[in-house]
């Protein structure tokens, strides 16, 4: 888990910036931004302590840094609890999501709280809370992945439908062009026949007049 979240502080830094710039001024924006910023600071501090966690180094400075990082994590979870209660009072989110988030934060806060000595619980309680937290977090991740997959499938379906409509429109326009060209060819052919008939009639009339003139001269 430490490897997977080694650069997690970048995601929370970007999330805090997006939350602060995209949301309207409100108390919720302050709480959400503070939560993301505290989590970014926690993961940034913890990144330097991975060598101590792996047993490569035994630096007292990194041990103290890990202790302070856990304190920041405790503050981040506390802010998340306040944010969850704010959403519950404001009714911005469904009750089921708020309940799962509340249980998740209550379980997570025992880990840093017991590590820094701010919450007096034994290791068994912390282990049970960690298991419950992992189950709820896994369920939330699975629901988010399913939602993203459905949205992706809907976008793909809409794109294919737009493509089909475009192809049909192109096909119809080509058929209309072919029909118009065929009509134009028929009209030109009919006009040519008419013009030929008129010219032939004019020549015949001209020949007739010429014959009359010749007969009149002979007489």
UniProtKB/TrEMBL annotation:
Spans through the membrane: 37-58, 126-145
InterPro entries named among the record's database cross-references: PEX11 (IPR008733)
Basic and acidic residues: bias regions: 164-189
Chief localisation class: membrane
Cellular component GO terms, alphabetical: peroxisomal membrane
Signal peptide: none
Biological processes annotated in GO: peroxisome fission
Localization per Swiss-Prot or TrEMBL: Peroxisome membrane
Keywords recorded for this protein, A-Z: Membrane, Peroxisome, Peroxisome biogenesis, Transmembrane, Transmembrane helix
Region named Disordered: 152-194
One Pfam short name: PEX11
Protein's name in the database: Uncharacterized protein
Annotated organism of origin: Aureobasidium pullulans (Black yeast)
Lineage per the UniProt record: Eukaryota, Fungi, Dikarya, Ascomycota, Pezizomycotina
């Amino acid at each position: 888990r430490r490897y997977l979240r080694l650069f997690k502080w970048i995601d929370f830094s970007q999330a805090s910036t997006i939350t602060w710039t995209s949301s309207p001024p409100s108390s919720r924006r302050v709480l959400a931004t503070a939560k993301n910023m505290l989590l970014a600071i926690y993961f940034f501090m913890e990144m330097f302590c991975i060598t101590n966690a792996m047993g490569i180094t035994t630096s007292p400075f990194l041990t103290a840094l890990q202790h302070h990082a856990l304190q920041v994590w405790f503050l981040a979870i506390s802010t998340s609890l306040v944010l969850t209660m704010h959403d519950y009072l404001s009714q911005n989110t469904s009750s089921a999501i708020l309940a799962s988030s509340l249980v998740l934060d209550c379980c997570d806060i025992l880990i840093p709280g017991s590590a820094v000595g701010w919450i007096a619980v034994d290791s068994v309680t912390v282990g049970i809370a960690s298991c419950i937290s992992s189950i709820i977090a896994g369920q939330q991740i699975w629901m988010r992945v399913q939602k993203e997959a459905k949205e992706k499938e809907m976008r793909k379906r809409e794109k294919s439908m737009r493509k089909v409509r475009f192809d049909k429109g192109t096909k119809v326009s080509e058929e209309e062009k072919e029909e118009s060209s065929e009509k134009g060819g028929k009209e030109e052919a009919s006009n040519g026949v008419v013009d030929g008939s008129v010219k032939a009639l004019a020549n015949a009339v001209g020949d007739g007049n010429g014959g009359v003139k010749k007969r009149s001269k002979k007489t």
